[in-house]
Amino acid sequence: MIWLITVASLLGFLVVNTLANQPLMTGYALPSYEIASYDAKIWQMLSVALLIALLINVGLYHGCNRKQLKRASPNPAFAYRFALPLLSSFIFLLTLMLSASYGLYHHKLYQNALLPSVLTVDAIVESHQISDTVSQTSLLSNDNALIGNGFIKQILQVRVDKGGDADASSATPQPPLTALISANIKDNPDWEATLSQLRPGTQLNVKLQLEPIAQPKPTSLPNNAKPLMLGFDEAQWLRQRGVQAKGVIIGIEKTSLQEFNPSHVKDRMVIAIEKLRWQLRQKILANLHTTLLKQSTLIVNAKNDIAQPVLKSSGETSSQSASQSSGQSAIQSHAILLGLLTGDKSLMDSDLKNRYQVTGISHLLAISGPHVMMLAAIVSVFVLWLVKWFAPQLLVKLPSSLLVLWVSVVIAGFYALLVGFEIPAQRTFWMLLLLTLSKQLLVNFSAYRLLAWVALGMIWLEPTAVGQAGFWLSFVAVVLLLKFSETIGTVSAIEIKDVSQLLAPTARSDVLTGFVKIISHQFKALLKLQIWLFIWMLPIVVWFFGKVSVIGILVNLLAVPFLGLVIVPLDMLAGVVSWLPVVGDWLSQTIWSMLTTLLNVFHFLLNQLIDTGVAKQSFFALSQTQLVLCLFIALLGLLKGLLPKMLMLPLAILLILLPLQQRSLNNNKPTLAVGDNPKLVISLLKKGDDSWLILSDNQVKAAQADKPNFLKTKQAISNVAADEEISSLLNRDIYPLLANQQVHRLTGVISQTPSVRVNELVQQLATHVPIKAYWLAGYDVEHSRLDVTDKAVSASFRAITPRSCQTAQRWQQDGLEVTAVSGWHLDLALTDEQKLATQTCYIHIRFMPPTSKPYDVLMLAGNSDIPMQMTEKLCTVSATHLLIQPYTLSIKTSRLALTKPSLLHVVTGAYKSQKLGEDSQLSLASWSVDKPADHPFEVLYADQVGAVIYALTPDNTD
């Protein structure tokens, strides 16, 4: 029954969690009195009905058991045949409705707590937890190193200062407001000292610009378009943490930093734990600063030893490169130590996460159940030894097994709080607690039933947990481990006999032989476990992440024991001894330095696997039908006797044929996916096996009057490290797009604008995804370089060599044609802006089906009208069905009259500076009036519709 209720609850919360991301669910909010009425009439009624049904079920079950015993009859009673199954079905439906109603109530409660509009306020921010990111400057021998990306992000409690000058008093939120606050440290270095001391339990007076959390908006799309859900869902991530708004610090009062006393006991406990986490972070950061200083000193000394003056410049360049490389390695190694010790991921950058994902060991970046169990086991055994030595009489009242369990519960609970109470740590703690209570009360519970109780409690305490990949990976992994221990993981009697004989050798040679065979047995068991977990967890990994690393099976054989048996125990030991007086700091710093060296070697090996092409990711996508089939096959494999396992073969064949059939249907229907990133427009053209990735870098200066100082594009470019930004673009935008469209190789990549950033992105992409052709605007073929205005920036073509994207360049295959209609290399005296404009490539896409009219798409780029003016004079511009352009390019009535688009897709952003200007809006209004009466025209904005995929089918637009 517990599993029946758990499955029904999961389904109910999943339905609400899925609908919560739809525009119709987020387009309105209920008043507080409607929420109260909803709660009273639906929630309480279903709860009472479910309780009554459960009591009846228990009564029938025990009554039938007593009658069966009295009659001693093998024939089942009527209740067993009809009443109990019907009642169980009724309980399942009631639980499903109850969980759905509670999930909806929980969602609407959160929606009503969100900030409704943008406002600027003077506020007091209170820190209840450590920051999500770190941004500090480390003083080195030859330079300063920036740890982090120049921004601090932290979830803070915002209390509005009543004496402040709020812009909109009616929109001022009621305190406290939970907000994700960011601060620009790189352009405001005087803030660093103050904000770095904003530890848990302190408050600070600041001036904030608060903005609402972006929600999907109900917008109608054309017949040939549909929304595309890709990558990181920020709104869902913020909801899971109870964040009600986002904000940017635009001013601080440095002298106002002080501690505060929380009024609630719960807040005091949380702050106490967070202070402990912050102190451990500071200890590891201190070790990081020491490591960076030593490395810079060694590099400076090595540079000073260079005797040849001719080689001085090259020596300086190589030493600077070595300094950056060694510094980055040290930061990433300390990020692993900090994450495994406290669950703090503030030092982990996108490059490190991507490295672990490509090699298939990203699950090791998070605190897992074995980490908690290891610490609990070590401490409990130590406590048991102390009790046996100093107070053995205590074991008379409390058996040693129960003592170990209760100590493990306490330690697991404390460690779970220390690491932020992540889902795997929660699961381990609750399972330990239930197991201990069952042993204490002499109640026999199976491990599966305990797991069901834990899952049921966690999803009812936090309904958003069903949308987290960690929840499913954690619980499914435990079920698989339990099943593995019952089947594949068991050791046969012959193997036990062989090992037992090997443990009692008669000669030294037998000792060595026995040791080798024992290790081989363990290795085979571990290999079987890795294959077992990889196969059965593959659908969940593909559903949430869309990519799989096949080599991960082998890498885990090395990484799991290395991190689990070496790094984690020693990291925990360093954290514990750091609190010892006198020698604590020295001991902990020594241990962490040793672990940093080991992790540097480990990361070097991972880099070798990636650089040599051994470790690669494969991109996949599952439809809902395929996911259901995978779950059904898994149930057939795990549940014995439920259904014949012969059904697994036809279901597996159906699972393979579904995507093949869908692929054959879509081979003749090209699609164009357009992303919603306003700075870098990412589009994917796909038809059958041919796929073109089209990129347009639109990071240009914005007008001073259009945006506040803290939102300048120039500052945004300089505040984010290039490697971190590119890794983030790959992981959040491009890889999810390729996975969604099931693209494993690219026919070509086009960079419409001359961009060093896009070129570096393509070079990194080419190491993981085969690319046949690469068109790069502004590429100088004669000198093999990118002709950009910033001569100090060099472009590397280590993975793939481009060809220049110029006018009349064309690719054609099976009725699909891609043509560059602009892009010139002119030997004229032009300014830098004019030179970049003339090199910008407009892309024309035409699909010519054999039985209908062609479908035309024109993709614009840049921020200048020069390419269009030159195209009008030198080329023939035909009418288009779909016109795509960035917000940086102004809209002209003459251009609309020339192209006559039926649909205009403008890639706009959330900020005011990323919207269309007034001139463009007037042009649109004028064209809507002056256009031909029989000509349909519609405008879509990316900040309203998000990412969209278009079917290039003329029949839907005629």
Any key phrases for this structure?
958 residues; alpha+beta; eight-stranded mixed sheet; seven-stranded mixed sheet; 29 helices; 27 strands
Largest sheet: 8 strands, mixed
Radius of gyration using CA atoms only: 31 Å
How far apart, in Å, are the first and last alpha carbons? 56 Å
Q: Note the total helix count.
A: 29
Number of β-strand runs: 27
Strand content of the residues, in percent? 5-15%
Averaged pLDDT? 76
| Order of strands in the sheet with most strands | 7-27-12-13-14-15-16-19
Specify the structural class. alpha+beta
Shape: globular
Unreliable stretches, pLDDT < 50, 5 or more residues? 26-33, 162-173, 307-319, 488-503, 700-721, 789-793
Measured as a percent range, the helix fraction is 40-55%
Describe the structure.
With about 950 residues, the chain is an alpha+beta fold. The chain has an 8-stranded mixed beta sheet, with helices on one face. The protein has a 7-stranded mixed beta sheet with strand order 20-21-22-23-24-25-26. A hairpin with a 2-residue loop joins strand 20 (about 810-815) and strand 21 (about 815-820). The longest helix is centred in the N-terminal third of the chain and has 40 residues, at about 30-70. The protein is globular, with a radius of gyration of 31 Å. The two termini are about 55 Å apart. Residues about 25-35, about 160-175, about 305-320, about 490-505, about 700-720 and about 790-795 have low confidence and may be disordered.
